[in-house]
Write a structure and sequence with these properties.
CATH superfamily of the largest domain: Ferritin, core subunit, four-helix bundle
CATH topology of the largest domain: Ferritin
Number of strands: 2
Shape: elongated
CATH architecture of the largest domain: Up-down Bundle
Length: about 325
């Protein structure tokens, strides 16, 4: 049995007063979530922050209306009941988890918050046979639907075309700094720096298993080194490059993949077959690096191709010459 599940109430067992109290606490929580989103986004996305300020104000107004209704029907003392007290009630993701995601993900989560609440109230209204409870739940569902309409109005008011374009550019820049740039550095390091040891071992021993082990060790070792170096080099506070954990992860994973790409073919026992496939993989890796540089770093494609191919060819030649000697 799940710990704490035995102490949860079923929604069907709640009284109308408790349902109203639950709605009040839910509106209060949602307003707090929207204000947290606003403060998180305000430095980089001021227009979207104003959008969430408006949505929080809407939640406050609905909460106050629910409190007024409770006072008229049941008095001033509101029972303490929250989402976590009700079995099967929709839950909100932790704010600390959402605020680390992109602006589009936060906007989508806000829309899902309103849809979840509306859908829950509608289903609950269908299950009850009590007319007053059905009306209450239906009114709450309509209020949640109204929240969605109001959110659309607020978005139209605060986010014009220029604001959306500016925030999209800021979001893209952050994505490049946090994920693409360290990932590209890792892919370049893993693809190019492991060429010499892998192909030197291959031509020196012509033993595919030994070559694979050397490639695996070089790739994993380089990935760990690059990941820790990237994470430790900049905490992102001043540079604005984002979480060091994310950058280190991107750099480490891509470094490892860059080396493993041309190490894995040596799992094939036939030496020349494995080597031919490894060379093809190297070509694909170098082309991918050039494409990423052109796509995200605005490096002219011919220049990126020349730089990557020349550097890769020199390292590859060094490995073959050393191994053949």
């Amino acid at each position: 049995m799940i710990p704490g599940a035995i102490s949860r109430r079923r929604f069907s067992d709640l009284s109308e007063q408790e349902i109203l109290a639950l709605a009040i606490s839910s509106e209060e929580d949602d307003a707090r979530i929207y204000r947290t989103y606003a403060e998180t986004l305000r430095p980089d996305y001021p227009d979207t922050a104003r959008l969430f300020d408006g949505m929080a104000a809407e939640e406050d107004s609905h909460r106050q209306a629910l409190i007024d209704l409770h006072e008229r029907r049941f008095g001033a003392v509101i029972p303490l009941i929250r989402r976590e007290h009700v079995a099967g009630y929709y839950a909100r993701r932790p704010v600390w988890l959402m605020e680390n995601l992109g602006i589009d993900r936060i906007r989508a989560e806000a829309a899902a918050m309103e849809r979840d609440a509306e859908r829950f109230y509608l289903k609950a209204a269908q299950r009850t046979s009590d007319a007053a409870t059905r009306k209450l739940l239906g009114d709450l569902a309509a209020a949640e639907a109204g929240h969605q309409d109001r959110a659309a109005e607020l978005q139209a008011r605060h986010l014009d075309g220029a604001a959306i374009a500016t925030e999209a550019e800021t979001s893209h820049r952050q994505f490049v700094l946090t994920w693409v740039q360290p990932g590209l550095a890792g892919l370049m390091d893993g693809s190019v720096s492991t060429l010499a040891p892998i192909f030197a071992t291959a031509f020196a021993t012509q033993d595919t298993w030994t070559t694979f082990l050397v490639g695996l060790a070089a790739s994993v070792g380089a990935g760990i080194s690059m990941g820790f170096t990237e994470a430790a080099s900049d905490d992102g506070e001043i540079s604005g490059r984002g979480s060091p954990l994310k950058r280190g992860l991107a750099s480490g994973v891509m470094t490892t993949l860059g080396g493993l790409g041309h190490a894995l073919p040596y799992l094939i026992p036939a030496f020349w077959t494995a080597t031919a496939i490894a060379v093809i993989v190297v070509f694909i890796e170098l082309w991918a690096i050039a494409w990423i540089q052109n796509r995200y770093m605005q490096t002219p494609f011919l220049r990126a191709t020349f730089q990557v191919v020349l550097g890769g060819a020199l390292v590859f030649a060094a490995g073959v010459l050393i191994g053949s000697g």
